[in-house]
Here is the input.
Amino acid sequence: MEQVTGFIDSASQFLTSAPLWLQAPLVLIVVVPVCGVLALVWLRLIDVLGARILRILMSVRAKVEARMRSTK
Here is the structure.
């Protein structure tokens, strides 16, 4: 565990002491793929939840319509 902590500490020290022209590309190389993956996960989650909510609403609507037809 100390090796991991030491590596992270060394990397953060390198980034904070590096010039901006070196920091920006290195951060973007990491941030853009991470944000892309998070966006795909978020999109999939929204799609699944939307489909489930739509399925629930459609079943409730069908039950209400069936009750209305049976009372006529």
Summary: The mean pLDDT is 93. The chain has one domain: 2-71. Helices lie at 2-17, 20-71. The two ends are 72 Å apart (CA to CA).
